[in-house]
Amino acid sequence: MQFDSLLTTLTDVHTQLSQQAARQTDQLMTIRNWLFGLYIVQFEQHGEDRAAYVQGLLTRIAADLAQRGIKGSTDRNLRHYRQFYLTYPEIRKSVISKLGPAYVPLAQAALPDTDQLPSLDSDYMLNKLTFTHFLELTKVNNPLYRRFYEVEAIKNNWSVRELNRAVTTSLAERTGLSTDKATVIARVKGDKPVGLEDLIRNPYVLEFLGLDEKATYTENDLEAAIIDHLQDFLIELGRGFCFEARQKRITFDNRHYRIDLVFYGSGQPHRVLKCHVLIDLKIGEFDHADAGQMNLYLNYFSENERTSGDNPPVGLILCASKNDSLVRYATAGLAQDVFVSRYLTELPNEAQLQAFIQRESQLLP
C-alpha cells in the first residue's frame, strides 16, 4: 500500500465511523429527551394536564437541573420533551429494546389509535429522523397529516427547514386536494430563497367558515364569514400577515371601486413580504377581467399607498374554480404580481390521502 493510499483509507475510516458515532449519539439524545418527557408526565398527578401546575413544575425542574450542570434543559425544552413523549408514546418499544425495561415504567400515556394509518416502525423513525424533526412533527395535531409528514420527510430526506416549510404551508392538505401530488411535494425540496409563489397557497382551505359547499352564498357572505373568522383566516394565509381593511375604497374621477380585503405582510418570517396584499373574492370561476381589475388596484396602491421600504403590493384573487391556462394568459406580462388561488370550504378526503401515504410508505428506503 502506498503512503497516499494509507492516508485515504485512514481518512475514510475516520469519516465513516465518526458519522456513525454522531448518528448513534443523536439517536440516544432523542431517546433521552423522550424519557425526560415520560418521567415528567409520570411525576405529574397521574399525567393530568393542568397548565399552571405543569409550567411551575417545569420551571422548578429546569432550575435544579441547571444547578446540577445538565445543559440545555430549560423549561421551554422540557415542555418540548413532554410534548414529544405525549405525541409519540409508541417509542416506548424502541427504548426498551435499546436500553432495557428498567428505564420505562409500566404506566404510560395511552397509545394513539394508529390502526387506520399506514404503518411506520418507531425504530425506523428514530434511525431516520433527528429530534429537531420530531419537534416539528409534534406541531401537527392530526395523526394522518403527521404520518404524511413523517413519510415524506424520510422519503425525500428533508432537512428540518424543509419539513418546517412543508408544515407551515399545509402541504398535507394541499397534497390531499391536488391531482398532481408529486409536483406539490417536489416544491418543498431545496433551501432556495423563499419567493412569493411559495407563500401563496393553492388552494386555501376555508372549512372553518362553516359554508356548505353546495349552498348558495354571495361574495358578501364569503367576506363576512372571513371577517367573523379573521383569526382562522390569518392562520390559513400563513405567518406574517395582519388585517388592514375591508371594502377599501379607491376613487377615480368620482368613480368608486372597492377592494374586498387588504392585508399587510410584515416581513416576518419571510423578508419577501413587507408589502400590501390585496384580496379579491369571487364565488364563481375566474374570469380574465378579474386580473385586469386586480391590476388596477395594485397600480393604485403602488402609487398612492406604498411607503418607503415597502415591496410592491401583491394581488390574490380567491375564486371557487379556475382554468389554469386562462389564468396564465390573463396574468402574463402584468407589471404587478397577481396570483389566482382556489378556495375550498371542505377539508380534503382523508381516505384518498391515506391511500397516497400508504403508497408512499412502500417506497421508503
From TrEMBL:
Domain YhcG PDDEXK nuclease: 198-354
Transmembrane segments: none
GO function term, MF aspect, one: nucleic acid binding
All residue ranges annotated as the YhcG N-terminal domain in the record: 17-174
The protein's name: DUF1016 family protein
Natural source organism: Fibrella aquatilis
